[in-house]
Sequence to fold (362 residues):
Amino acid sequence: MDFELDDDQLALRDAARDLLARRSAPERVRAVVDAGGGYDAALWNDMVGQGWLGLELSPEAGGLGLGFVETAVLLEQVGAHVAPAPFLQQTLAVWALTTTPPGAEWGGPLLSGEKIATVAWREVSAVPSPALEGRSGPGVAVSGATEPALFAPAASVAIVRSAGGLHAVDLGGPGACGREPAMDRTREVGWLRFDAAPAVTLGGPQAAREFLDRGAVAHAAEMLGGAQRVLDMAVDYAKERKQFGRPIGSFQAVKHRLADMLVDVEAMRSAVYWAAWCIQAGDPEASVAASAAKAWCSDAARRVMASGLQVHGGIGFTWEHDIHLFLKRAQLDQSAFGDAVFHRARLTDLLRPRVEAGEPVL
Fold:
């Protein structure tokens, strides 16, 4: 069995890396941050033009006919370059809206990048609404507040979960949701608050579960990319920074810290791509793999970022150094689509029936 990326996946990774190295270099990311946030329109147009949003759609539907593993490849590179673009939540929304007939009216505008979507994992309430019957799908009214959602201020549609399924809410256009202050200034966030808002049901509990799985792995893949980049930065700095006439990387304490970072990053990689494959293959273990990946990557990313700061010393705590961009991005990714505590509890619920039945959990 081959556990490595194949030649096509490696080519996709390299192409994404080249694009983001040009369009999402640190100085360009900082320019977006200094301008007040939002997203880089030029970078976004390049992503759309290269077909990133239609990666998993069939060629007949205007896509590339690839899978979720390839989506994870792109998300890893997005995280490695802290790209200020709404790719993560847009690709989740495209999947939700183009795989069900009720979402077809939104599929085209989102696929072309003309409209922006936002997504949220925290459940809202949804009740049937007879007044909404006759729409493109079963009409419901949703109420409640979600967690701060990525690029909600720029979004025209939101994908949300309820106990009974997955729903699309027309936000009425960009600006319906106010921008909230956040530590991660490479992405704008906003609260989604609904009071009997009209919505279309895209699927039932299975669709909502798959949506949570995909969102968890997507954020884990971003954290993997950021953690790998911070590890590379720490190694380079340890080779160059000298103390007592020697590179600090020659000291045992620094070597041990870098080695621990490497162990965490490689374990993150295994968890992310196993979960991505399970989702792509429709494996029964997909939810278990997704929650395991999100729980591990959330904790591991925190350790890697902390160690990266320690290796860089005082310079790592300054605004002038790029490491703070990765640290703050990881903090938001750790909580998005469920933090480590949530996913460990979810794993307990998923595995308890096997234990009670005397079955192996692995």
